[in-house]
């Protein structure tokens, strides 16, 4: 079996973890999603550390931020610096991801759209026009979104009960083939979303 690009094995076969920003965020996203989804906890806890790293080493970010949706990102809310949101609005805009994690997702998206727009579109399932909008955001815009609209960022496929059990099962296998096939399927799904709302 080939070695994962995200970690290396020494002579004693102990993983020296070298997670990149994408995989590191994916690991935190997975942990948050599992914590909020009781039906997945047993499968997750049964996974070894290398299996969890294989799962987190996905070539795209495991969140859905609607980056293909121009309607959402083309009309960013204009929050005043000290504007206070009503309690009801705060309660309805919750996310299973913590506010700091949501902000890190947004910051990664912002950085990628500036440094590598083509890579950002693949890793984030982002349309070309949305990539331009995110790249032009101010840091205060991203902070406001993380605080006021955390519901925009949620684990990918969190509303499909069939997807994550299959991914967890694939990660548990020694052979990488099933997990690689699911990752390819995921990339195809992201591309289909972008095509559906084509620029």
Plain-language structure description:
By secondary structure, the chain is mainly alpha-helical. It has a two-stranded antiparallel sheet. A hairpin with a 5-residue loop joins strand 1 and strand 2 (15-17). Helix 6 (99-115) packs across helix 7 (117-124). The chain has helices at residues 21-35, 38-46, 49-56, 70-73, 87-92, 99-115, 117-124, 128-135, 139-148, 163-172, 177-196, and strands spanning 7-9, 15-17, 63-64, 154-155. The chain is built from 11 helices and 4 strands. The termini are far apart. The model is unreliable at 1-19 and 85-92 (pLDDT under 50).
Short description:
By secondary structure, this protein is mostly helical. Helix content is 58%, strand content 5%.
Helix content range of the residues, please? 55-70%
Tertiary shape:
globular
Mean pLDDT over the residues: 83
The sequence of SSEs as H and E is EEHHHEHHHHHHEHH
What is the number of beta strands?
4
Residues in β-strands, percent? 5-15%
Query: Count of helical segments?
Result: 11
Q: Gap between N and C termini, in Å?
A: 40 Å
SS-based class: mainly alpha
Query: What is the CA-based Rg, rounded?
Result: 18 Å
Major sheet, described briefly? 2 strands, antiparallel
Strand order of the largest sheet: 1-2
- Which parts are unreliable, with pLDDT below 50 for 5 consecutive residues or more? 1-19, 85-92
């Amino acid at each position: 079996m080939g070695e994962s690009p995200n970690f290396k094995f020494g002579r004693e076969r102990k993983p020296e973890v070298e997670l990149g920003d994408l995989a590191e965020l994916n690991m935190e996203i997975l942990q948050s999603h599992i914590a909020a989804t009781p039906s997945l906890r047993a499968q997750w806890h049964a996974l070894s550390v290398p299996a969890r790293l294989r799962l987190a080493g996905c070539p795209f970010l495991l969140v859905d931020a609607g980056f293909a949706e121009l309607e959402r990102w083309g009309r960013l809310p204009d929050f005043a610096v000290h504007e206070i949101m009503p309690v009801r609005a705060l309660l309805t805009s919750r996310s299973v991801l913590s506010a700091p994690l949501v902000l890190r997702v947004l910051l990664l998206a912002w950085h990628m759209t500036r440094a590598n727009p083509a890579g950002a579109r693949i890793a984030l399932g982002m349309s070309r026009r949305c990539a331009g909008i995110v790249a032009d955001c101010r840091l205060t815009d991203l902070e406001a979104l993380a605080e006021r609209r955390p519901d925009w960022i949620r684990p990918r496929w969190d509303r499909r009960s069939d997807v994550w059990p299959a991914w967890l099962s694939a990660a548990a296998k020694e052979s990488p083939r099933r997990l690689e096939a699911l990752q390819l399927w995921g990339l195809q799904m992201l591309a289909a979303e972008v095509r559906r709302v084509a620029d």
